[in-house]
Amino acid sequence: MQSIEILKPHPQGVLAKSQTQWGVVLLHGFTAGPGSVLPWGQALATAGATVYILTLPGHGTTVSDLAQTSAGQWRRHVQQTVDYVLAQGHDRVAVAGLSLGGALALDAAAHRAVDATLLVNPALSFKPVDQLGVALSPFFQRIIPTVGPLAGDIKKAGVVEEAYDRTPVSAVAELAKLFRTVRRRLADISSPVTLYWSTQDHIVPPTTAKLLRRRMEPNLLRIVHMDNSYHVATLDNDAPLIYQDSVNTLLSLSGGDHGGTA
């Protein structure tokens, strides 16, 4: 399939030694690109998983491309990729994502038979201060086609997230549509979900974590708090925690002989 980078598993990784072949679909955030989740994917591949990193429609090219992209295109691209990975013969399949990618991972988990979902600060709602602007975005997008950047919320000094320097207002309106769609189907998720949640996040409000607690089966949701990272935690101070815990989570779901520890 197009717009997918495949990271091959390391044969000596702990997941490979568990003799359970994991395929992981990994999704980046809004206006950004695969670079924001690439180190996470590399850690999973080193541990023995086959990792499929998508470039979401409208991303990795130009702001004008994103302005012409719909929430439906994002959802279809992810679901088609999950279908592709499910057909590759892996023993188990996980979906994982950051921010927008986290929302799309939840959407895929609600519609496809995946075995695990890994989320880093998933976006399912807007901050209260932004909600009025989002509600009016369909009316203002011809007058004000773009606003400032949304990416780069990182605490660690010297780290930069590659992303668009402007945000299409039309794409923000599509983001709102996606949030509504995903929230309606959270109760349909039947496999384990791990949420890596920054206690200080300047992009996504705490209501997202509350939504997951309220609408998902309690025994399926595990929350790992991160106190030393902002929104793009996959590149921040807590990134090693995400990488190691993700591997351990997949290992715990592998069954049988783990062949050692991560």
TrEMBL record:
Signal peptide: none annotated. This is Serine aminopeptidase S33 domain-containing protein. Gene3D superfamilies: alpha/beta hydrolase (3.40.50.1820). One of its GO terms (molecular function) is carboxylic ester hydrolase activity. SUPFAM superfamilies: alpha/beta-Hydrolases. Residues 21-236 form the Serine aminopeptidase S33 domain. It comes from the Bacteria. The lineage of its organism: Bacteria, Bacillati, Actinomycetota, Actinomycetes, Micrococcales.
